Amino acid sequence: MNEGTYILVLLGGIVWFWHASRTAYERVLEISNVVCKELRVQRLDDGVSLRRFRFRWTPNGLNIVRVYCFEFSSDGIHRHGGEIALVGLSLDWVRIEHPDGTYFIDVPGNSIG
Question: Which residues contact 27 (CB under 8 A, 6 or more apart)?
């Protein structure tokens, strides 16, 4: 392979990674909206942020695990946190630090990406 081919492969990998990350971000926004609506709380700041990123072997091969965090309010004054983990683009778990107690939702079978 020549130098141009290596550059094209590298650029293709960067574009793929950017697109997969953007799709995961939009998926987490959607999930966090649903979770907050179900718990009757207000999601704050209209966004989520990537907290952790790693790779995990699954039955389907190597997958990217992303953990996003977001904030919400149950009373309009105090902020509370939540986290959502995706394996690939599949929901793995949700953790909510609600004032009434911590909620942890594990999604069995969806962690294979």
Answer: 86, 89, 91
- Whether residue 83 contacts residue 95, with contact meaning beta carbons closer than 8 Å, is answered with yes
Is the separation of the CB atoms in 94 and 69 below 8 Å? no
The residue with tokens 């009434």 is 100
Global pTM exceeds 0.70: yes
Question: In this prediction, what percent of the chain has a pLDDT beyond 70?
Answer: 95
Half-sphere exposure of 20 (CA within 13 A, CB side): 17
* N- to C-terminal Cα separation, the chain: 32
Cβ atoms of 24 and 89 within 8 Å: the answer is: yes
